[in-house]
Amino acid sequence: MKIVTILGSPHGPRGATGTLLGELVRAATAAGGDVRAFSLTDHKVVPCVGCDACHKTGVCPQKDSFNSLKAAMLEADGIVLASPNYIVSVSAQMKALFDRCCGPIHCQAMHDKYAAAVETSGGTGGEEVQHYMLRFTQWLGCWTVGSVGAMGADLADPMRKGQAFAGAADLGRALVAAIQRKQTFPAQAAARQEFFGRMKSLVQYRKDAWPYEYQHWQSRGWL
Ligand SMILES: Cc1cc2nc3c(=O)[nH]c(=O)nc-3n(C[C@H](O)[C@H](O)[C@H](O)COP(=O)(O)O)c2cc1C
Predict the structure, then answer these.
(1) Three-state secondary structure along 133-193?
(2) Could you tell me the distance, in angstroms and rounded to a whole number, from the CA of residue 99 to the centre of ligand 1?
(3) pLDDT tens digits in sequence order for the chain, 223 residues long
(4) What distance in angstroms lies between residue 85's CA and the mean position of ligand 1's atoms?
(5) Which of 24, 65, 99, 215 could form a disulfide with 48 if both were Cys (CB 3.0 to 4.6 A apart)?
(6) pTM over 0.85
(7) Residue nearest (by alpha carbon) to ligand 1 atom 8
(8) What is the number of the ligand 1 atom nearest to the C-alpha of 152?
(9) Which fold has domain 2-184?
């Protein structure tokens, strides 16, 4: 079972978000997950330039780490996104990755895979950031297992830090279990179906302009 983690903090694995993510990774690995960890400090992803090449050809022409990260994501059974709260959103590094995934979203390229999110904040607003990361993965086609977050004050207090770490470990185990059981989440079903239908209409409408995406949907037997 392959799990890919992508960390969007400029502080890398030793920052607050990377530390909390590390607890999830340890637990997921102990539960049988084969975890590949990527940090956007080492794998640069530049912003989308809106050229639409990905929709036409399936490949982004920009020369950076995106295409190899995308391949790792699509090969995985589960994905964990981790970002600090930057002004009630993800870091710019993580947002660049989201925007570059516009083609994979149209293609529902992680259909029926699994996702979780990890976030840390100096203060408040972290839940919105967690929700945003989970929504992105739902747009890729994933079932979302859950998210964890911690504030700076939590991580500075030994007892609250222990609770945050335990929550991250629980999420790691829950992700592995969901993948093993091919779990579905009935509360997510209606929104998934609605978004899938919206992407289907889009690729049909843009059939001539975006042939790669139309052919992808045909090859999956979804048209
Ligand atoms: C540019 C920037 C914006 C931030 N915006 C917020 C914010 O809106 N709300 C908040 O609670 N913390 C905010 N923070 C604090 C970080 O979310 C917090 O320190 C986080 O734990 C850092 O994680 P890291 O060590 O993994 O980078 C911000 C920090 C930076 C550098």
Answers:
(1) HHHHHHHHCCEEEEEEEEEHHHHHCHHHHHHHHHHHHHHHHHHHHHHHHCCCCHHHHHHHH
(2) 21
(3) 999 999 999 999 999 999 999 999 999 999 999 999 999 999 999 999 999 999 999 999 999 999 999 999 999 999 999 999 999 999 999 999 999 999 999 999 999 999 999 999 999 999 999 999 999 999 999 999 999 999 999 999 999 999 999 999 999 999 999 999 999 999 999 999 999 999 999 999 999 999 999 999 999 999 9
(4) 5
(5) 99
(6) yes
(7) 87
(8) 21
(9) Rossmann fold (3.40.50)
